Amino acid sequence: MSQQNTGCCGGACQPRTESGDPQAVPQTPAQPPDTQALRLRIDEMCCPTEEGVLRKAVKDQPGVVSLDFNLMDRLMTVHHRQADTDALKRQVRSTGMTPVDIDDDAPHDDESADADRPSRWWPMALAALLALAAEGIHWFGAAPWLETWAPPALALGAIALVGLPTWKKGMIALRHRSLNMNALMSVAVTGALLIGQWAEAAMVLVLFTLAERIEARSLARARHAIRDLLDMAPPRARMQQEDGEWQEVDADRIPIGSRIRVRAGERVALDGDIVRGSPALDESPITGESLPRDKQVGDGVFAGTINRHGEFDFQTTRLSRDTTLARIIHAVEDAQASRAPTQRLVDRFATVYTPAVFILAIATALLWPLLTGTAWLDGIYRALVLLVIACPCALVISTPVTIVSGLSAAARSGILIKGGQFLEQGHRLAWLALDKTGTLTQGRPRQGDWQAFQGIEPQEARRLAASLAGRSNHPVSQAIATAAKEAGIANDEIDDVTEHPGRGIEGKVAGRTVWLGNRRLAETYGLDTAALSEQLEPWEQRGASVVMLGDTQRVLALFAVSDPLKATSREAIEALHRLGVKTMVLSGDNAVSVAAMAQEAGIDEAHGQLLPEDKLALIETKAHQGTIGMVGDGINDAPALARADIGFAMGAAGSDAAIETADVALMDDDLRKLPRFVQLSRNTRSILIQNIAFAIGIKAVFLALAFSGHATLWMAVFADMGASLLVVANGLRLLRGASPSHDQADGSVTTHATRRAAPAGN
What we know:
It contains 27 helices and 26 strands. It is of the alpha+beta class. Helix 11 (341-372) packs antiparallel against helix 12. Strand 18 (504-509) and strand 19 form a beta hairpin. Among the domains are: 234-322, Distorted Sandwich (Calcium-transporting ATPase, cytoplasmic transduction domain A); 415-431 and 567-667, HAD superfamily/HAD-like (Rossmann fold); 446-562, 3-Layer(aba) Sandwich (Calcium-transporting ATPase, cytoplasmic domain N), CATH 3.40.1110.10.
């Protein structure tokens, strides 16, 4: 009677890079355009050993170009040129694994693989009773005739109920020269049967199968943690038809530009822009912030968010597969599929450890009786115990389950981490550099004081400044343009517009060259701004940015633009300091106003009047003193973000560029997520060390017990699989407190199942 076998690690192990370089950042290489992709789901594939078996079986088949493995989702992708796909599947089946064709756009549902129906547990219960009965006869004794035939019969019955799939897979692995857990268990159980240890052979297989199934269920929680976010987006939405009527439609069939209506208490199904209404939306699935945000016409909405108050209509801007929520999920899954540095180190250790202990077991069986004068069966038994200990299962899964849990917990808190290496590296952050505008400040500058000098009419000065500012996307320029527009000042026609990054903008009005920018831009025209210091100093000491308007001869006017500090910035900086992370601000603004803002926020160092290359140089300098992170918008600070050990993009919700390019994307503008990231990284690191130390410690203890004769086979498998369960449970602790908020609107609670199965009616 067969029973489902999910493999030795329940799918938590991470894939290897094609190159095998333990230091390489894992990436899926771009495939030639003339290749096809065959995507197969293989439930039995869970560890690098199974991956190795599949590589040997498939890589040399005609037409195969390359192989990609995602052990987290148990997927194998075969990139090929006109290969016989049926032959490829036969090769997979020859390894004892079952390939299942999947559609590229189909979600990966692990329920069938990880959650057995209750009726499937009865063979396990019966097998356990038979094994215990065999052990009981051995321990407590029985009539001689009963001891002769009962233990073998009971043991073989238990093995037939639960052990045959493991034994079969083990034999296939040995045939492919792979020492995975199934192979080691098969050899150990076969050896125990040959030397007459019937009860122990049965107990070993029962304990192994039981622990394996419990482990698979536990690991499913880590694998599903991020996929559960998909449930946040309802499968159907209320769409306006051509005749003006409203009808519920499957969300994946709704095109861009459709008008969708959302009532209070419902979830948003797609991304879009509000065209009617002023709702209050809970965006916690995207940003991790559960406080509702008031929205107006023209504001964007995200799939999965909850409408806490007010009916509204929105126009879709993305298909269901391209929503911000879907991109977050895909990004975290890609990160989960990569191998973190510690995982690469553990895998390298495991590839050496397992064969070494296997060789030690063979040597023990052959040499122990000769060296100690004991019976041959005693040496063989100790060797079998060593074989069970040789499996590095607990060690191999200790890292990926922890990393996956950390990545999922971060995503649920609105922190999108693009790889396990960045989650691991975060605990070493010594410095954190922050951009000023839009990062520490609100990013909505307002023009305050201004002054025109003799030789130009005040209104003309404002008109020229507004004309130039209107051609720039910089927030400071936009503040000047907005103030002029509010004052009813019209713009002049600007020709030959040139932007100077980090300095300002210039153009021509009626053939006259004029410019708007900072002191650096004034100095490029040979203008001496020292004489203006007395006028600039009061504004700059209040933290205002001073923008100059001038021509090729002189400065014509000054404008003070202020951008208030975010209410949460000082709290975030204080939390970083408590964690021992030093901070500095890098800005193109004048040094005096940057210093004033840094003092208000409590930042350690302030650097102003910086060009992009200056920011890069400062990051380079600090990088020699320790691990450094850079926080910015992901575009203007691109060189510094790229050079930093970890680049953080602020307010990435809805931004394709930030989600795709940043190492870490904070899905809203809340800097308090930075200390949360550091703390999560440190917790992850602590659990990694605990799990690795515990897994190796158990191995060391049982190696000693095996040689001293105090370890039995069933004790070894109990300790080995028990260690696996403990490291899984320890890694899953990172998911605590990371669940998205419960739905509750207008005093009602919508259950998880109800949201998916029964959207609100028309």
